[in-house]
Amino acid sequence: MRKPNIVILGAGYGGMMTTVKLQKSLGINEATITLVNKNNYHYQTTWLHENAAGTLHHDRTRIPIKEVVNTNKINFVRDTVVKVKTDEKKVKLQHGELTYDILVVALGFEAATFGIPGLIENAFTIGNINNARVIREHIEYNFAMYHNEQEKNQARLNIVVGGGGFTGVEFIGELANRIPELCKEYDIDKNLVRIINVESSPTVLPGFDPQLVEYAMNSLESRGVEFVTGAMLKECKPESIVYEKDGKQVEVPTLTTVWAAGVRANTVVEKSGFVTNRGKVEVQKDMRAPGYNDVFVLGDCALITNPESGHPYPPTAQIAIQESQTVAQNVKKLVQGTQELKHFEPKILGTVASLGHNDAIGVILNERKLFGFKATVMKKMIDNRYLLKLGGLSLLMRKGKFNIFY
Ligand SMILES: Cc1cc2nc3c(=O)[nH]c(=O)nc-3n(C[C@H](O)[C@H](O)[C@H](O)COP(=O)(O)OP(=O)(O)OC[C@H]3O[C@@H](n4cnc5c(N)ncnc54)[C@H](O)[C@@H]3O)c2cc1C
């Protein structure tokens, strides 16, 4: 009998963990497994804000796929997915085509700009290693240029971050640590540098415990961050942004706007004709796309509603990793001919947001709140635990975060 072709799209949290689990649980005689990814490395999306701010080199964040995946068991295809042709059970790639019997879609997210004029053209986003590297270089270039011009351009030193959610606040925390170093390096008075966060909700980190939000804002304000809450970003121009607050429009000169206020599922999902809700596939309990017995969708491409709140679970690495466990088990069941599949039960263990490398806030099991040092240690433990799960002790030792006391 012909071996089934399992094709996994995307080597992020969801795709990599599914691959590694199937690599262990299926024999080479049982199935052919192919992993497709744009790059020949996996990156830890949850560390990209550090790369963007320049507090962590991107080589720490990226992990060559061949270091984790056994290429004697898994075919790795470095290519870009264009579309899934479900009626033909094929995946169209930029440079070819693959046929599948079982498909796993784990293509992650893209920035959502909500039609705000100028954002696509003039703002940066933190979406992958290359975006992050450009932001770091751009900030550094502007600091270097500041002294080289006769007329000082304050826009070079104003950094605007759109969105005070998780990603925006984590990025600001890293910037607040990085700016004093950059000022020293480029002989700039650090009081001249402005980090401005524009958030449409009345407070940053909407949905977080108010006490933790207050702690985060105090911590960041004490390091010079300015928060403009209840303000809508109206336009992003090449040398300024315009926001509206209390009915008034304010223009801030800046050459650096980083948009961190929204993500959507990878547009490949919509282009492929899956039925979507807010751009994501509202998956069945067994993680399959409705109407398809052979297509699993997970991570930021999947939508699952929390029955208690009635709202979708937020897109997180935590949930993508948990989903990969169910997807890998269910793919194996299909390969072995079992039609009764496992249901995914999310187990939210908590949320920890860093405020730079030496401060953090979080809520863990049973609503326990964490601040400062304890939260920082917890954040690094979460990061290290993932590395251990993905590639064992050797990967943890190579890439782990052990800088607990500084
Ligand atoms: C700065 C930042 C900080 C975050 N912090 C946290 C946190 O602390 N905790 C938490 O739980 N979550 C956090 N998140 C959210 C988390 O990173 C995402 O929810 C998670 O990465 C989703 O995993 P995924 O597997 O769906 O996609 P991803 O991890 O994004 O992986 C998608 C993969 O698909 C590849 N790909 C994309 N398009 C194509 C294509 N067309 N063809 C081929 N390959 C393609 C990409 O290169 C990538 O390797 C953070 C996000 C950001 C941006």
Tally of alpha and pi helices: 11
Annotated CATH topology of the largest domain: FAD/NAD(P)-binding domain
* Heterogens: flavin-adenine dinucleotide
β-sheet strand percentage:
25-35%
What's the short story on this structure?
This protein is α/β, with parallel strands linked by helices and 406 residues long. 33% of the residues lie in helices and 26% in strands.
How would you characterize the overall build of this protein?
The protein has 406 residues and is α/β, with parallel strands linked by helices. It folds into two domains: 5-38 and 79-111 and 264-347, FAD/NAD(P)-binding domain, CATH 3.50.50; 119-260, FAD/NAD(P)-binding domain (3-Layer(bba) Sandwich). 33% of the residues lie in helices and 26% in strands. It contains eleven helices and 25 strands. It has helices at residues 13-25, 48-53, 58-61, 65-68, 119-122, 129-146, 166-185, 210-221, 267-271, 317-335, 372-399, and strands at residues 5-9, 32-37, 41-43, 62-64, 74-78, 81-85, 90-93, 96-99, 102-105, 109-111, 124-125, 158-162, 194-199, 225-229, 231-237, 240-245, 248-253, 256-259, 263-265, 281-282, 295-297, 302-303, 350-354, 360-364, 368-371. The chain has a five-stranded parallel beta sheet with strand order 5-2-1-9-21, covered by helices on one side. Strands 11-18-12-13-14 form a five-stranded parallel beta sheet. A hairpin with a 2-residue loop joins strand 7 (90-93) and strand 8 (96-99). Helix 1 packs parallel to helix 10 (317-335). The mean pLDDT is 95. Bound molecules: flavin-adenine dinucleotide. Flavin-adenine dinucleotide is lined by residues 10-15, 36-39, 45-46, 48-49, 80-81, 106-109, 126, 128, 166-167, 170, 266, 268, 299-300, 315-318, 320.
